[in-house]
Structure formats: C-alpha cells, structure tokens
Automatic annotation (TrEMBL):
SUPFAM superfamilies found in the cross-reference section: N-terminal nucleophile aminohydrolases (Ntn hydrolases)
Name under which the protein is recorded: Gamma-glutamyltranspeptidase/glutathione hydrolase
Signal sequence coordinates: 1-27
EC number: 2.3.2.2, 3.4.19.13
Keywords recorded for this protein, A-Z: Acyltransferase, Hydrolase, Signal, Transferase, Zymogen
Pfam families (alphabetical): G_glu_transpept
Source species of the chain: Planomonospora venezuelensis
Superkingdom field: Bacteria
Length: 584
C-alpha cells in the first residue's frame, strides 16, 4: 500500500508545520534562494533546473495539489524562467505513476508537422536556416498536454495551475549566469526579430546577471489562457497570431537573415491533440522500467540498451557504450512516428541477447548496423545486411526535465522543450513567448525508408526519456534529462551508475558522462576521459570532448516514505531539489 509508505503527519503538512515556515508563504515570489542539488525528506519532492519552478511546484503540493498539478505549475514557471528551453509553444512527454490505480500512464504532447508538410519539405534546407525559421515551428503541444494531464489526473484547473507562473512573469526572477549566457549566445539571431529583440535584448543587450527580468506580456498570455482555455490557442485568437508569426516572421529591418516562412495554418492547430499512450516497459534486474513510446525513441532505446546490458556477463563502462551504440543503430532504423514500429521486439529479451552477441572485448567497428527485430532470434547471427542507419539529425542540447512526487505516492517525470536553446528565435509579438523549432528533429532527407522523414501531421522523433522505475510495483526512481539524443545516454548512464556500479543517486547524477550514439567517436566530459579514458582507449574506443552532457533531475524512494530529490550540482549552473519536510 502506497499510503502506508508515506509516514508523515499530513495534518501538519496541510496546516503548515514549523518546517514549512522556511518555505515562502506564496508561490512564485522570487527572493533569491539557495539552490541545493540534493534534498531528503518526506511528504513530497520536486527537482527541476530552476529554484523558482521547484518552489512553485512544492507550493502546489503543500496546498494539497497532486504531482500532476505541481508538474504543470512547475512547467509553466519554467516557461518564464527557462524560456529558451520550455514554454507554452513547445511540446513534451509526461510519464506518470498513478498510485491509486498502481499504473503508469504517459501523455504525448509532441508537436506536429502542418498538414502541408511532406517528406520533401526539409530536403536541401541548410540546418542553420531551418533552425531559425517559421518552417521548423511545429504545432505546439504543451498547452493541450497540460489540459489533458490536469483533466485526467490533476485536481487544479489550467487557470489555477498557471497562477504561480503568472506571478513569476509579472514580478520577475533574478537573471542567473545560465540565462544571461544563453541570451548572449542567441543575441545575433534574437536581434534579427523585432519581437524577440524587444523582449530578450532590452536596450540592445542581454539582461545582466543579478538583474530582475519581468515578462508582463507572458503573464497576460498565461492569464488569458487560463481564462479562455486551450481553445484560444487551438484555433482561436492566439492560434491566429501564432500562424501569422510563423508565416510572416517579424524580421527586423536591415536584417540579412534568410528566414523561411512556415506552412502552419489555423486548421493544423485545430486538429492538434495531446495523446495518452501506453508506456514502454522493460524489466531490468527485477525492476520495471517505464518510458516514453514513439514518437519518442527514449523508452525503446533506453530499454533495449538495458536489456543488452542484462544479457552480458558484466556491465561496466565499455558495455554501457557498446549497448548504447547498438540500441542507437536500431533506433535510427526502426523508430519514428510511423505505424508498425516493432516496439515489442525491440524490447524483447530474445532480440537483446542477439544484439549482445556483438559486444566483445573491443569496441565494435563503426557504424554498428541495425539488427533484425523479427521475432526469430539466433544466439549469434551473421551481421545484418540492412543498410546502416542515417546519421542522427543534429538535435539541440536544450530542453528541460522535472520530477515531482506527492504525498500520495504519485510520481511525474516530465520532459518539456522548444527544441533548440531559444527555439526558432521568434517571439510571437506582444505575447512574451518563443516558438519551437521542433521540426528540425525530423530527418531532412533524402533518406528513403527512414521512419523519421517529415509528413503531414507527423510528430518528429524525439529522444526525450522521462523514466519511472518500479520495484515490486512501487515507485523506486524517476529521472530524466535534457540534451537532444544525449538524453537517452544520460538516463541510461545514470541507471548504470546507480544499479551496475552501485553509486548512490546524487553520485550517479554528478558522475562524469559519456555518450555513444552509434558514432565513430564517443563524446565525453573531461572527467569521464580522466576516469575511464585510458582503459577504454586500450579497448578501441575513441573520445572527443563534450564539455557538458545533460542536466538531469531525479527522485528516489528510499523506503518508509523517505524521498531523495536530486538535481545537478554544477551542470548548467546546478539545479534545485526540494522536499516537503526535510529530514534532519
Ligand atoms: N528536440 C529534442 C528531442 O525531442 C529535445 C530537445 C533537446 O534536448 O535537444 O529529442
């Protein structure tokens, strides 16, 4: 029974115990708070990259909201404080453990391509032109996802869930180094759009670190969204403004940028639906690992790699890299928003055993060909004749992930994104938010047979991997990360660190990372190269430096109601982990 596991005085929580007096009385007001990467305690937990978002989500929990309420409220705040990673015009995936029904659900809020988009629409478009364009803007999914999540599993209305974000947008938040640097990195393209420059380059420059950044236009947009509901976006007035912006971006006079217009029309917005989908499920070391099904490749790729690791006699860093390489070969070949993705076979033990055969003492030759998830498995088949997979399209290093656990034992792992840092760089005039450029996650082509070519109404393949692990049917761990296709390896590596190498969760998150995605070289942080480089190079691995991989958030259930919320100690400026009642 979940209820038995939460051994805290609920009356105390509801009344506001002395412990809670250290928390602000109202959500979203933002005097600077210390960011802590680890918090342990009882009664509920939150981890995000941002203290304002974590605090808002915790406050929702404190007032009796559940994990879904808090996750939506937190995501909306991230749309204010992390506007280059998340926002109402983006998309994402929610994996949710429902304690009452003892069931894992997922909600797909992935953006869709307009109906006018075909498999040839992105062919020949230079990536950098696609990144900053109307063409790459997908039909936003987040608002529909929030509404569906709240309706199905929450207790708050959208209007209520948006209140903390409205306050933060109105009253402002303190600009930190990350926000400043992300603005500076985007300054050239932001300056090319009148609406974006006006909002994010006040006085022509990025807001200085330590200043207060207010976004009253976004506060008003959220307020009206709460009042009119998602219909305002999905076919109403806000939708019309989005379509106008996508088709006729507000390019600054004198800008030399070639800004391709988009194909989105109002009926595309009207047709959008967030979708409930069955989660992916893999058993691993007696635990059940639940993830996100297509159009994300997160669940199938993490799951397949875990199965391969289980089929090997040992699982260290060499095996982690090789399992990931193989799983990425299959991801590229088979996974996309298409009918007939062989999900069950990709996640079968038989297939994993066949794939595990290819893992030897030395790194396998590049590229690893995809396997044959056809249900007929041999111990060690000859190499598959199928052509190698297309190169993984470049995916931006941004997005964000949050976890929430509530006093009832419900758990949310939620990835939200606008794709690139700063999305497509185009703010909808007067509305305070950036559009996404998620459609750059499609394979541009020509690539006959690739499951991830664009198509009308299609959702681009994602790597987002919000993950919930159950043991004996109870939540044990929830985690996720940003980082484009490195999301998959970050989640996988944290699980390997935790369960194969026995690291406690804070260490498993903080440990230096490497990412092998069926590429000739493995990207790795310097700390990883220092720790494992010599041994792995001797086994045929080659490394290139990636200064920072991922920005994970997680929560572990330690038993007897004790929760450990964990965020990054230093990547991307460090995250913010909070619990309702801190343990002494
Ligand atoms: N667009 C990416 C994906 O869906 C997420 C954004 C990122 O982290 O780059 O996989």
């Amino acid at each position: 029974m979940i209820a038995r596991r939460i051994a805290v005085p609920l009356a105390g929580i509801l009344a506001g115990s002395s412990v809670l007096l250290t928390q602000p009385a109202t959500a979203g007001v933002s005097p600077p708070v210390e960011k802590r990467p680890v918090a342990e305690g009882y009664g509920g937990a939150v981890s995000t990259v941002d203290p304002d978002a974590s605090r808002a989500a915790l406050e929702v929990l404190r007032r009796g909201g559940n994990a879904v309420d808090a996750a939506v409220a937190g995501a909306a705040v991230l749309g204010v404080t992390e506007p280059y990673s998340a926002g109402l015009a983006g998309g994402g995936f929610i994996v949710y453990y429902d304690a009452r029904r003892k069931k894992v659900h997922t909600i797909d809020g992935r953006e869709t391509a307009p109906r006018a988009m075909t498999s040839a629409s992105l062919e020949g478009v230079p990536l950098d032109e696609a990144v900053t364009s109307g063409l790459s803007a997908g039909v936003p999914g987040s608002v529909a996802q929030w509404e569906l999540a709240l309706r199905r599993f929450g207790t708050l209305s959208l209007r209520q869930a948006l209140q903390p974000a409205i306050r933060v947008a109105r009253e402002g938040f303190t600009v930190d180094r990350t926000f400043h640097d992300q603005t500076a990195a985007n300054a050239a393209r932001f300056a090319d759009f009148t609406s974006t420059a006006r909002l994010f380059l006040p006085g022509g420059a990025p807001p200085p670190v330590g200043s207060t950044f207010r976004n009253p236009e976004l506060a008003e947009t959220y307020r009206l969204l709460g009042r009119y509901g998602g219909r305002w976006l999905y076919g109403g007035g806000l939708g019309a403004e989005i379509v106008k912006t996508v088709k006729n971006p507000p390019v600054a006079p004198g800008s030399a940028r070639n800004v391709r217009p988009g194909l989105m029309e109002l009926p595309d917005l009207r047709a959008y639906r967030a979708l409930e989908r069955p989660p992916t499920r893999t058993t691993y070391k007696g635990m059940d690992v639940y993830g996100m099904a297509p159009p994300s490749s997160g669940g199938s790729t993490v799951g397949e790699a875990l199965n391969i690791l289980e089929a090997l006699p040992e699982a260290g860093m060499h095996e982690y890299l090789e399992a990931s390489r193989l799983a990425f070969a299959d991801r590229g070949r088979y996974v996309g928003d298409v009918p007939g993705v062989p999900l069950e076979e990709l996640l079968s033990d038989g297939f994993a055993k066949e794939r595990a055969c290819l893992v030897g003492e030395r790194a396998m030759p590049h590229p690893a060909p995809p396997g044959n998830p056809d249900g007929a498995y041999e111990p060690c088949p000859a190499a598959d004749p199928a052509p190698p997979t297309a190169e993984t399209p470049a995916e931006g290093p941004e997005t964000t992930h949050l976890v929430v656990a509530d006093r009832w034992g419900n758990v949310v792992a939620y990835n939200i994104t606008i794709e690139s840092t700063g999305g497509n760089g185009i703010v909808v005039p007067g509305r305070g938010f950036l559009l996404n450029n998620e459609l750059t996650d499609f394979t541009f082509g020509p690539a006959p047979g690739d499951p991830n070519l664009p198509g009308p109404g299609k959702r681009p393949r994602s790597s987002m991997a919000p993950t919930i692990v159950l043991a004996d049917g109870r939540p044990l761990l929830a985690l996720g990360s940003p980082g484009g296709s490195t999301i998959i390896t970050t989640v996988l590596q944290i699980l390997v660190n935790r369960w194969e190498l026995g690291m406690p969760l804070p260490e498993a998150l903080a440990a230096p990372r490497a990412t092998q995605r069926n590429t000739a070289q493995t990207q790795a942080e310097q700390g990883f190269i220092d720790r494992y480089g010599a041994e792995l190079t001797a086994r045929g691995h080659a490394f290139t430096l990636n200064p920072e991989i991922g920005a994970a958030t997680a929560v572990e259930f330690l038993g007897r109601g004790r929760l450990q919320a964990v965020a990054e100690p230093s990547r991307r400026g460090g995250g913010s982990a909070l619990v309702m009642i801190p343990a002494r």
